[in-house]
Amino acid sequence: MYDVLIHDATVVTVDDRNQIIENGTIVVDDGELTAVRPTRTEDVDLSAETVIDGSGTVVMPGLVNAHTHLELTPLIGAFSDLGLLELMGSMTALFGRISEGEFEYLVDAGYELAALNFLLGGVTTVNSMDLRPSVGAETFGEAGLRGFFGPAITDLFFDVPVDEQFAQARAFIDDHHDTYNGRIQATICPHDDWSCTRDLWEQTAALTDEYPDLLVHTHLLELDESNTMARANGSEDSLALLDEVGLLNERLIAAHFRVADEQDIQRTAAANASVAHCPSVFCYWNPDAEMQWTPVPELRNAGVDVGLGIDDHYWHDSYSMFGEARQARLAANVKRTAGQYSSMELVRMLTIEGARALGVGDEIGSLEPGKRADLILVDVDKPKFTPLTNIPAHLVNNAAPADVETVLVDGEIVMRNRSPETMDVDAVQQRAEQAVERFEAETGWEFDVGGSEPPSTSETMRDLPKRGPVRLLSRLALQSARDAFPFRIR
Ligand SMILES: [Zn+2]
User: Fold this and answer.
1) Is 0.90 topped by the overall pTM?
2) What is the pLDDT of residues 4-29, one digit of tens each?
3) Separation of 68 CA from ligand 1 center, angstroms?
4) Distance of alpha carbon 303 from alpha carbon 72, whole angstroms
5) What is the pLDDT of residue 478?
6) Is 2.60.40.2470 the CATH number for 2-61+374-418?
7) Domain limits, the chain
8) Distance 314 CA to ligand 1 centre (A)
9) How far is the CA of 201 from the centre of ligand 1 (A)?
10) What CATH number has the domain spanning 63-357?
11) pLDDT tens, residue by residue, 226-262
12) Which of 71, 428, 438, 484 has its Cβ near the most Cβ atoms within 10 Å?
């Protein structure tokens, strides 16, 4: 007897040929896909513990959120109407306090709320960089989801001593790597290329030598300051620095790559490193309209795996990975010209390319026999999907999280007919509400039905980490001066 049988579904396999089976059957046994093929008349008589009539649904691989931060999820709505400087100031102050151990209740509620909402929206794998990832690893593990988690390490952003940060990273890896039947994996997360010194990169490389199975997850080439800081660190540019310390390789998954040039693209491809593209967060919080847009088509043409990430989703109030695909297209088209992607390419970035970027493309990301059964059923028996022509376009232009009906991860049914099997929806909502009430009472933040108000500028200034950001800004300023007057300042 099989574990799960789905029959009479439209199956978007996302295999190498992008095959779509109009009337397909999927068999799951022991967590694995054992058959993905056209439905036969005898399929209705096959015995399985769970039989799902897939008519009226599209079955596709579970969505991969290839770069995100989850612990502040209950603060959805708090930032989206602020100015860019207010956002940056209040976030830096908050991160400083969380790094010192405050707001545990908010972090706990944050991971629960994130797990629940991503599950409801068909996201079966996340790659999250946070400050307190232990709770995340356990929450996602218990919810039956797949996740890559790691604590952010940086020496020019927080005031937590670097030795302490590395000790926490080691403890996290030892406790959580490869847990929950391999669904939860630890990562090593130097935060970015604008807030880390060369010494931190070198220590990170030493840590990766100790743990050769782990991915290295970071932000790269996000801003012009990325390369400025690399020069301050004694390298030609950001990727040269990573190469010099031994981190530019197939273990690297880096978010953004917005200012990547042709040489960066070639170096990334040659190193077999991967990219997570996060279009919404940049479209929402664009610091410089003149700046170039992430060269995703060029990266993909060069052979780089590019997944999609929702990044700090509570800065732009979205849980929709379908929305990231749509935004990737709109942003690329408006910055360049129409037709930057086909719909199927965007489906691939949401699934198999995200999986490959995370080094698990052989296990998940497409529906093929032998792979783990991470899949979602999208209810397309709705007026909005009628007529059901060009399914890839419907998925990336028209589908929403609420259209996801059933979700399987590793062969287990984690949501059936919109009802999560592994999480208590009411309890999660209640804890998120209570956490925000307490947060409001403990801080100068104010939330009401019409909006939010961060603490006053002076309160925010008081809470900012002191040493890290001051060193960061002075290094950038000095390097910018050196770049402007290369012969005078040494
Ligand atoms: Zn990020």
Assistant:
1) yes
2) 999 999 999 999 999 999 999 999 99
3) 6
4) 34
5) 85
6) no
7) 2-61+374-418, 63-357
8) 12
9) 18
10) 3.20.20.140
11) 999 999 999 999 999 999 999 999 999 999 999 999 9
12) 71
